[in-house]
Amino acid sequence: MASHRLNRTLKRSLTTAALPTAPVSAQPAESDAMKEYNDLSAQAATVDEDLLKAQADLKTKQAELAKVTADLTAAAKAEDDAKASMTQFEGQVGEFTSASYRGARLSGVSALLVSSSRDDFLERMSALGVIATDNANAMRGLRSAVDQADNARTAIAEAQRRAQEATDAAAKLTSDIKQRKTELNARIKEVKQALNRLSPSEKRALGGVKDTGSYLGPPGAANTALQAALAKRGSEYEWAAVGPREFDCSGLTMWAYNAAGTKLPHSSRMQYKLGRAVSSNELQSGDLLFFDDGTGNPDKIHHVGMYVAPGKMIDAPTEGQLVDVRSMRGDGHFIGARRYAG
User: What CATH code is assigned to 6-30+211-339?
Assistant: First the structure.
């Protein structure tokens, strides 16, 4: 979530099309301490993104498990209902079968022989038709109940399989999250130590708000999100924070777009999968810019910022820096941009 910092990235090239940039003055050479700080920040950012993805995947699996559990309950009820229907129709079929074996079945001829009149004969024939229809209906009902019971048993078996898979996946993700949290805490500690090794002048260069200018985006959600982000200039960086006083990079963009009525996930990698892709030569204020490790692999995205104006973006950089408008060249390798409004 944190990024390769401003000074470092003047040495890096951007992947894909070059970003439009404002004139940039020559920068002093990066010290070893600053390089270490930038490198460790990027490494921690990658681990943080891995953690966020694992947490999002766990939520998905938990939701899947809840649905499967509901499906399992519904299938079990369907089986119980089918069994009750089977019992009912088995009784009806049994009655008709028993009556037939006792000689109760009457033919049309026998009905004629025992009828005392024409009307009596017609009444007896009508009764025979009802009995035959009822017997056929009972048989059809029994067959349907048996089929429903079989389908319910199949659904139960499938739901149980899915439930076990979701449970196993959730358990693995829980273990992964614990491991990644441990690793992230170790990385954050290293970043803080590297930050403390910077010279006083380097620390001053990192701190404080440098850009207090006003910027406007296109009317609508994009500008609302932009103004929300700009209003947070000076907010401190905090790992996994989503506001309103502290942010990490995707926490800031998520919070800003939430203020505009657009829901985004708390992960730069997941945000990259949403919205509409836009090329670097058609950027508008409010578009999100994504940065990876130079491989062009979306799974290696570790930072996101919001486009403000040519050559500028607003972002939550990393430990020791504040939310501010800064150079778009401050985050390593540009992999792409996304638009969520308009």
Answer: 3.90.1720.10
